[in-house]
Each structure stands twice: as structure tokens, then as C-alpha cells.
Write a structure and sequence with these properties.
The complex is a heterodimer of chains A (about 200) and B (about 725). In chain A, about 20% of the residues lie in helices and about 40% in strands. By secondary structure, chain A is of the alpha+beta class. In chain A, a hairpin with a 4-residue loop joins β4 and β5. Chain A is globular. In chain B, α16 packs antiparallel against α17 and α19 runs antiparallel to α20. The longest helix of chain B has about 50 residues. Chain B starts with 6 loop residues before the first helix and ends with a strand. The chains are: A alpha+beta (about 200), B alpha+beta (about 725).
Amino acid sequence: MKHLFKLTICFLLSASPLVTGTVCAGDEPFARYDIKPGQDQAYLILSGDIHFNFSRAALEALDNGLPITLVTEVELAVPNEWFWNHIIWRKSFVHEVQYHALSQQYLVKDIQTGFPKAYLTRSSALAALGKIENLKILELKKLDRDKSHIIRVRSGLDSEALPVPLRPLTYLSDSWRLRGDWKKIYWWDSEGNDADLR
Amino acid sequence: MQIYGKNYFKRMLIFPVLVLFAGMLVSLYLLSNATENSASIGPYYSWLLLGNAIGLIVLTTIFGYQLYRLLLEYRQRRAGIRLTLRMVTMFVILAVVPVSLVYVLSIQFLQRGIDSWFDVRIEAALGDALDLSRDAMAGRIREKARTTLAMAKSLVDTPTSLATLDMVDLRLSSSADEIALLDTAGRVYAFSNIDPEVVVPHAPSELVYSQLRQGYPYLDMEPIEDRGFFIRIVIAIPDTARVITGERRLIQALYPVADRLNTLAQSVQSAFGAYKELSYIRDELKQSFILTLSLAFALNIIAAVVVAVLSARRLVEPIRILLDGTRALSRGEYDKQLEVTSQDELGQLVGSFNDMTLKIAEASQQARLGQVAAEEERTYVQTVLSRLTSGLITFNSQCRIVTMNPMASRILFNSEHDVSDLSLDEIIDSYPYLQEFYNCLSRNMGSGKHEWQEELTILNQNGRQVLIINGTLLSQELGHEGEHVVMFDDVTEFVQAQRNAAWGEMARRLAHEIKNPLTPIQLSAERVRHKCLGEITGRPAEVLDKSTKTIIDQVEAMKEMVNAFTQYARSSELKMVPLSLNELISEIIDMYKGDRLFPEVRLDLAEDIHTIIADQDRLRQLLHNVVKNSIDAMEATPQPVLRVTTSLSSSADTCRLQITIEDNGPGFDSGIINNIFEPYVTTKDHGTGLGMAIVKKIVEEHNGTISVSNVAEGGARVTIKLPCQIEYKA
């Protein structure tokens, strides 16, 4: 539905003389995932980093004080050959990064907790934004040991959190189409010794 | 009567369009406010944009469809299309021109208005205010750093295990919210927080440790959870013993920023951030407003055109319907009922039209029924007139023929002629033999008599014709003033039949009365002659001889005459038998071969005639009478020639056998040729005058016709036509 919505808006605005020089495709992936599952006592956990490839426009906007909101979706599913995977756990994490001109720091805020953290540089703030540290997914006892599982991770810009005038741009411009592909991680050994990252 | 048809719902399309238009207007209003009221409307911005896009697509589709229909109707030259186009053009011009003007001006105002928001001086002032805030904050940080450094020095000789009490004292003696004793490895030895529920100190980040390991103190302002900004000072305690282990002790102090300073600084930060953000999205802001404005413009234009088309259709529809109705009426569709599309004056006009056509249809139906009845009546009269055995002619007041039935034409012209609208004078020019008829009509019709009757004998090319004529002057009440109806019957055959019957009756009585005494007279004369002629001599004997001879001869002649009368008067009972006509003709001709007057005979007999069905005796008598007449007529002809011809003429529905007997004698006398078949008409000195009368009677008994004429080269011709009751050769 969202895709259809964007396509419709894209179609409409592409005919408009107001927006020129925009395309609907990007070259490099927005997010590169360096994460792996593991076990922490009785939990299946996820740790690693997501390296974001922000566009120049997005970084420029960030430096000019615009808040950038990223949504990271994590799913745990049991694969199905014939039909859609059976999702047994799903969670979204929303983080916002914003430049604080007074303190000359970048504040990274977890929207769920509302607690910000300050970083002196943009790169450290963005690195903190992609940091996944021992994310508890599900208790191991709740997993079926005879079946393999798929952990899917995707991170992207929440365009709806941008200021209103910028939103039409996100439907059309590659600079603002900041959404990573799904990263699939197959995991089937509950002992945590044999995780296959693909 | 109001009729709501299928077009009713099409016309009602204008209302959903108006609802859609109103919905899009509301949506556009919200869209334009989304920038200002980002918190309340912002989340729905995309949906509003999508809704407007869909609405625009729907309106564009309707717009395209309406234009296509207009084009189609224009090509089809549909009634009312020109008026519709004119109204649509007018509506569109009225709508598009002002809206376009407002659109262009609005864009200009918009761009100028947004540009006016940004000013270099304001930007510089905000920047300066931010720098001032930073400087103020920096001064406060430096002050707190000095305080913290003093605390660090006071802890140089304090063992770690006893530092907890010092932490409390130091926190209370300073304005810090939290004092913590740590080491560069991140271990916490002691801490004190203003909030007793806090059991873990707010540890610095790895970056802070890294900075301290390099020998630099950390002095900065950063947010702590949801409590706002704090001044964090982290300083290494200058105790040399710990340096040897590589884990230096650190003191961290978190100082709240003074409320007023914090408020002012945050206000400056907020204003600077908002201005910076707004400045950065300046172009996008313009584009966003222009997009909204363009959507509103497009919506207005399309909606104006669609509403213009629909309104024009709605206005023109009754006129178009009326036009269709009048066209249908001109084509004779009097039962045409129009659809009432509105309740206004035009709708009332359509209703009146429907009432009018209803009445016209009723009148037309009545007229049609009357016409059908009149046609049936006329057909009936025509049929009656055509079957009428009397002739009937109607004249108008100018004595011109209005109608003439077929029998009238057959009686007067012996064939069917169309003489309608001819006057009597014009008829006389073509048919002079009708002069007597003309005189009779002129005399009686001119007399002014309402009814008259007259018997008239005329001579046409076929002979004498007896007519009984009845005339009636039509009355004024019937609306036919001065018009005449003339009815006449051809009673020639009737008169002839009466005459023949009278002659037959007379002949029968004559034969009966005369034939009986003739034989005794003849016998008595012969007896006197036989007894007395031998007894006397001289003059008496001569007288006796001559007288008795005369008596006997005259009696014989009277007997022949009586026999002729008997034959003429005998009954018409026929004995029909098959016979060979050619053989019969040859046999009769052979009978005269010994006669002194026997002429040259030329037989031309048709080979394809085999036998015919006829009364042999009467047919023999017929041929005998005609042949004998011809031979007698040629008595004075130097080279008499008798020509007998038979022929067969057949068509699809008739078959006639024709016998023609010609001679080269003097021909028929012109004085008797017209009544040659009447009894006692003869040119012979001793003829009975019944020969040809008997011939005609026999022909008529066989349903045939007979006619006589004179041959141009000289001589007479008798033509007998008999119906084909015959058998043909195979």
C-alpha cells in the first residue's frame, strides 16, 4: 500500500514542473549490515553494526538542524517454502539524530525511551545510530530447535517524520530514498555455535 | 405528466462531482495548513496528498469523458450541441481567466512572501545570540571546572574505600547534582547523587575516557536522560600512586545549568534551529506551497470545466429534447413524448409540448381512422361500381367527368378508357358517334331537372346500340351542387332478344296456323288438276293448268316458308357430339358441286383442328345457309370465287375457332348490313328473310359470335367465332 502510494505520488509529481532532476532509483544500498545473532544466557540476541550510507542532501539537512529519524525493523520468522514465512517476533526501533547547535553536538535519541545521548562528531553519532548491542530477541525455549529460523533486519529513513515540505521530495528523489534492503540471517542452532550469515 | 428516464441519473452526476470538489477543497485547505500545523495535520500530509491526487485523477477522467462526449456529439451534429459548446466556452472563460490570474499572482506573492521571511541581519543576530549563549555556558563550565579541580585535589590523599563520605560532602559543598569517583577503566568507587533513588552514576562515554587517558580533562555540556542539559566535568585526580598501576582515579561532577541561563540558552537554540531548518528547506517550502496552489488551480480549472459542461448540458437538455420533439413531430411522429428533465419553465414547456403531441396524436389517430373508413368506403364503392352492370358517370358542375365505372367505358367505347376530368365536348371530339349521347346529356343536364330518363339509340362502329339513360342532379345539401350522376344500361341485346322472342312466337303460330290447311289445298289442287285437266281442252284447260300449277307452287313455297319458320322457332336444345369441322365443311361444299352456279371454291382449312364438340345438324344448317347465301349473291358475278377458311387462335385464357366465309359478289347492302341478322331482312326476291337470323341463333346457341362485313376488294365476309369445345391433334 505504501509502495503504491509512493508510486502514485511519483507519477503525479513527475509531470509537475516544480520538481525536476529527480529519479526514482538509487545506486548504492543505504544500509550495510554487519550483525550476527548469538545467545545470551536464555535469549537469542543480535549484535553488530549497521553502517549507513547517508546521501549528501541528508547529511546537509542534518548539519542544518533537521532531525533525521531512522526506523530499524527486526523480525524473527520460521521459513515456509510454499507460502509466506511465519513471523514469530517483530519489533521496530526508532532513533532520531539531530544537531544541537548550542552544544555543537549530535544528539541521538531513542524515541521509545526518549533519552538522548550526545556525540561530539557526526560520524560517532551515526555509528551510535547503527549500533545494535545485545538486542534480546526471544527466549530460546520458545524457539523450535528442529526448525531453522530467519532473522530479518531492515533499516531506513522515516520520511513521514521529516518536515512537511520535504516529504514530496522523498517520493521522488534518490537523495531521500534512504531505505535499506532486508538483511536475512539464517539461524538454526540453538546452541549458538553454528550461525550462518548470508 | 413527469417522466424520469435513464438520463436522469446522468444529469445527477453533477452532485457527486460537487461533493468531490468540496471534499478536495477541504483536503487542499488541510494540505496548505499542514506546514504550519505540523503536529496535528503533518502525519496526514501524505494521505491528504494522495487523496487530492486521486480526486484530481477522478475529476480529470470525468473531464476527459465529458470532452470526448462533446466531441462525439459535435461530430454527430447532435441537437443542441452548438448551444452547449457556446455555453461551455463562456463558462470556461469566466472561470479560467480569473483563476489563472489569481494563480500567477499568488505564486509571485508566495515566492516574495517566503523570501521576505529570511533576512541576513536576523540570521546574523541569531548566530550572535547562539555564540553569546555558548560563551555564557563556557564561562559557567570553566567556573564549575575550577570547583571540580579543587575537589579533585582534596581527594588526593583520600583512600578509595573511604571516599564515599567525601562524595556526599563534596556534593553538598558544591552545587553538583552528582559526584562520582571513577577510574579510567570505568570502575566506580564511590558516588553521591542528589536523588537517593539513583543507584548507578551517569557514566561518561568511551570518548570521555579516551580523552582523559590522553591527559585532557573533559569539560562539556550534555543532556542527561530527560532532565535537560548538565555540565559534565571529569578530571583526573593528581595522585601519583595510581598512575603507576595505569588506572588513574577520576572525579566526575554533573552540574545542572542554572534555570534562567538554561531557559534562555534553550530559547536561543530553539529559535536558531527553527530558523536554520526553515532556511534550509526554503526552496522545498516554496515548492510545497506552489504544489498545493497548483493542485488547487488544477482542481478549480477541471472542476470548472466539468461543472460547466454538466451545467450547460443540464440547461440545454430541455431545449435539445424540445428540438428532437419538434423534429419528430415534423416527421409525423405525433405520439412523441418527451422526457421532463427539470421543474422550471423549460420543464413546463416540455410538459406543454407533451400535452400538445398527445392531443395531436389523438386527432391524428381519429383522422387516420376516418381515412381508413373513407378508404374502405371508397374501395367498397369502387368495387360496387366496377361490378355494376350499368354504366355510371358523374359530372361536376362544369360538366367534366369526375368518375366513370368500367362498364360505362365498355358500353360507350367498347373498351376501358380513362376519360376522367374530360368534358363532354372533348369526348365528342374523339368519339363522334356519341353525338346523340352528348345531345341527350346536354339537353337533360341543362334543363335543371332533378331526375330524368330517356331511351337512346346510337350507332357506333359495332352497329346499333340501345341505351336507357337515367340522370340525377345531386342536391345542395350533400355539398355537390350542380353535379350530375348519369346511369345507363345497354339494352340492345335485351331489345333484340325481346324482338327475337316475338318473332319466334309469331313464326311458331304462323307455322301452326298455316301449315295445316296447306296440305289439303295442295292435294285439292292436284286432284282438280288430275281429274279435270283431261276432261277439258282449249282455253279452259290452259287456265286450269296454269292456275293449279300456280296453287301447287305457291303452296310449296308457303310450305318452305313455314318450315323455315318452324326451324327458326324450334327449341334451343342441342345434341352436342364430336365431329370433324373440316370434313363437315368439305361435305357441304360437295353438295353444291352439281349446281349451275357452283363457284370456284378455295378451302384453307387449319390442319391442327381435329374434332370439335357441336350439334352437327345445326352446324350443317349454319354453314349451308351462309354458303348458299354467298353462292346466290354471286349469281351475276362473272368468275365467282368462294373462300372458306378455318383457323385457331388461342391465348393464355381464351381459345377460339374462327370460320371465315368470303365471296367476291356485290357484298352486303349498306342499308341492311347493320340488321342483317334480324328476321325478314333480305335482298332476295323469294327469300324468307330468316336464313341469317337462324345462322345467328345457331351461333349464339353455341356461345359464339358472328359478324358480317364487306371486303375492300369487293364481296362479303362472314366471320364466325366459336369457343374451343374441341379436341386438338396431338
